[in-house]
User: What shape does this take?
Amino acid sequence: MREYVRRRGVVFAKTDFQGVLQATYVRLRIAGEGKYTHSFYLDIEGKPEENSLSGSGKMVKPGYFFIELPAGSYRISSIAIPVGSTLAEEDISISFEVLPNAVVYMGTLKVVGTGERVKLGGVPVIKPGFDYETAVFDERREGIYAFHKRYPDIPVEIETRLMRVNR
Assistant: This one.
């Protein structure tokens, strides 16, 4: 039986977190859409002892991130920040495409945390949360420069397909 091989691509973008989202780290959950994709966490800036990745995530520094993934459709489905000993997590919907055998610039994802809030559950549960505003900006000149600075020996055409904020 033949082993199924997926073509892969590279996507990269810049993150800009402001307001209450300027935290020790910000965790994005990325979920693949389709039969052969999976979900994982992208942790931006954390310290390993603070995160329980257990092999299901990737840690990156603030600013640009570069990820190689199987070609297909993906969605950033949640955003979380540390609050005390727990995470405040909110749903978010930002979609993007990974093209086979291509490098794609996805834009600058700006998320501004506009306020903290507490959610009360049925059992005495207090769940922290936050309000936020999201936008994607096209800063491709800076992005392409950052890619070539990080990977100077990879002469490649970079396509631009900005992330889409689904409201």
About this structure: The mean pLDDT is 81.
